[in-house]
Design brief:
The complex is a heterodimer. By secondary structure, chain A is mainly α. Chain A contains eleven helices and two strands, in the order H-H-H-H-E-E-H-H-H-H-H-H-H. Helix content of chain B is about 30%, strand content about 30%. Classes of the chains: A mainly alpha, B alpha/beta. Chains A and B meet through helix 6 and helix 7 of A and helix 2 of B.
Chain lengths: ~290, ~230
Amino acid sequence: MAFGPYLLLASLEGLVTAAVLALMALGLSLVFGVMRVVNVAHGEFYMLGAVIAWWSASLISGHPALGFLLALVVSPLIVAAIALLSDRLVLRRLNYEPQATIVATIGLLYIIQQLALTFYGPDARPVQAPFDMRLALPWFGYSAYKLAIIAASIFLIIATWIGLTRTKAGLVMRATQSDPDTAQAFGIPVDRVYAVVFALGAGMAALAAVLIVPIQQAHYLMGQDPLLLSFVVVIIGGLGSLRGTVVAALFIGLSDGIISMFFSPTLAKMLATLLVALVLVFRPQGLFGTAAR
Amino acid sequence: MSAALLVDGINCSYGDVQVLHGLSIEIRSGEVHCLLGRNGAGKTTALRAIMGLVRVRSGKITKDGMELTGLPAHEVPKTGIGYVPQGRRLFTELTVLENLQIGLMTRGKGQTTTDEVLQLFPVLRERLKQRSGTLSGGEQQMLAMARALCLEPDILLLDEPTEGLQPSMIARLREAILALRDRGVSTLLVEQRVDAALSVADRVSFIENGRNRETVDVALLRDDRTLVHRYVGV
């Protein structure tokens, strides 16, 4: 194969990574932006999303699309409910203090991970893709499902953007993000907003996981790498900036795909981490973030 | 005249430091009541306590006979209290219109309220789409007032609204406060500038180290500044 098609393949793979990463990082960024909570357990919500997707898909026999669709609905809902519970039982009791919540979510990470190991086991299990179609390009065939992941991610990101900028709920979230005390003085139940945002963030991680699980399999340790990459994306893009998150995810995803294929995956991770270091030194608020007031 | 808002012997602290010691204020319906005192006397804390943003350890706050202490902070404004915090505290990332919308949503007010409020502050009308953080200081203060008025309050809490404003803006603000008084809104005003306070207030309460001292008619202070000297030191 010539260089051009290789680059195309690498870019497509990179776009798939970017699509999933953007969704997951968006959840992380939303939670940090509105609640000032660094959710270290975000990767475990992603893992739970995949595991629950496997479980719900296995409930249904027949066409694989049915199981997948069920997973697409059920998994984010269950994960959001678990996040809601964690918020009520843990985060709220800590008054959302930044340091305390970091330690608490580390604890949450291990609890969820070990529960998954106990009840789901150490195996990696696949979910069948809803459709099995290959797109015949002149140089190679490419999975149509992977293209569908990209499309779904774009759709969800646009929906999130509209939700945040054009709806009342989004306005309330942005006001809470801007100044929680004053938001309360204008009748916004900040407590409830936090609970909803935390559930929403976790639900987005789960959604990303459901999309990826047909090509990656569900495993109890699968949350770790995406968590790291999500932090990379969120730091580069600027915490709390939707646009920054999407741009950074695209950049990290693409460079990961291309560098991994032409050189090595390790080099891709090294460069991403180096970029984070540079951003932290020269532009700590991120490329698209606004400086802390 | 009856009390629109009654602060009755409240104690508040930040951690171990007690800031308010049995503070009582009575705001009569339709008056502009000014709270004067030195820096750190507890004026801002008193307003935050009314809004439920600082926990009241003992004592109680009632509005038209309804107890506010114990309500969650987000329920307090729904009883009809508009709050203009110190330093304006706009939602700076949001546009002017969005800031007003937050105010409108508090008590489910609509377009008529918006129109009335914008009539009072016409400068804002041309800037509805502008991000509020980019407004000038005076415009920001107007917006903070407008946002509070969007919930059609019967009680308005103003925390140093003249801070950092030029004299023409202070005059505009004074007109707005008096216009609201004519509509029957009661105002609790916290001020550092004695002149600004005396020009608009009906009664003045002095507060010192979190305890209240004299409450007097403003006429008394215009002729005799002894109290002002004692509690504010100007």
